[in-house]
Amino acid sequence: MILKRNDIILKPESTALVIIDIQEKILNVMSNPKAVIENTLKLIKGFKVLSLPIFLTEQYPKGLGQTANALAEELVGINPIQKLSFSCFGADKFFQRLTDNNVTQIVVCGIETHVCVQQTVLDLLANNFQVNVAADAVSSRREIDYTTALNRMSKHNVEITTTESILFELLNVCGTDEFKQVSKIVR
User: Fold this and answer.
1) pLDDT digits over 82-127, tens only?
2) What does 158-184 look like in DSSP terms, one character per residue?
3) Whether the Cβ atoms of residue 16 and residue 107 lie closer than 8 Å to each other
4) pLDDT score recorded for residue 63
5) How far apart are CA 143 and CA 184, in angstroms?
6) Partner of 127 at 20 to 30 A CA spacing, among 15, 26, 87, 177?
7) What is the pLDDT at residue 14?
8) Which residues lie below 8 Å from residue 176, measured CB to CB, with a gap of 6+?
9) Residues near 10 by beta carbon (within 8 Å), at least 6 away in sequence
């Protein structure tokens, strides 16, 4: 019998982070905005340590403003993909960019869980991506919208997980320089 690891475990060579619409003007009305920022920062820093691709979207920045300042400082050099559609599917060939970068596994964080995040995640699934939502790095204005969206996505085979779980899955082993750096990030 040949033993193998589960295919849903994130692999650094095929994983990207997608940060959806964490913009200053809408962030303040979200439930737990501090946790969304803190956990998104952990994901960004961890993905940078591991040299993994990071994508960023902004929903109608003319009306909702730019990416939150606390995140923008860590995202220097990453140009936001501007969109009017709720799903990132409608944003400037975004899914094609993922495919062109050999990405098959997506880690998603952002707002709002029940609108832009959920629609993007469902479209990613329809295009054969494996999707992992960091439940502690997404939010909605109302708890019922957040909870219902996570439940719905889970029923459609989205991996609902946490920031720390994602980062340690990508590390795979301890004892490396990357492990030491990520361990400091998640503390």
Assistant:
1) 999 999 998 878 898 899 999 999 999 999 999 999 999 999 999 9
2) -EEE-HHHHHHHHH-SSSSHHHHHHHH
3) yes
4) 85
5) 30
6) 26
7) 96
8) none
9) 105, 107, 132, 166, 169, 170
Contact yes or no for 170/46 (Cβ under 8 A): yes
Contacts of 68 (CB under 8 A, 6+ apart): 22, 23, 24, 27, 37
According to DSSP, the residues that pair with 57 across neighbouring strands are 20, 81
**Paired tokens of 26:** 């809408």
Taking the whole predicted model, whether its pTM rises above 0.90 is answered as yes
Handedness of CA 24, 27, 29, 32 (dihedral sign): negative
Q: Cα separation of 115 and 150, whole Å?
A: 11
Collect all residues with Cβ–Cβ distance below 8 Å to 72 and sequence separation of at least 6. 66
pLDDT, one tens digit per residue, over 118-148 is 999 999 999 999 999 999 999 999 999 999 9
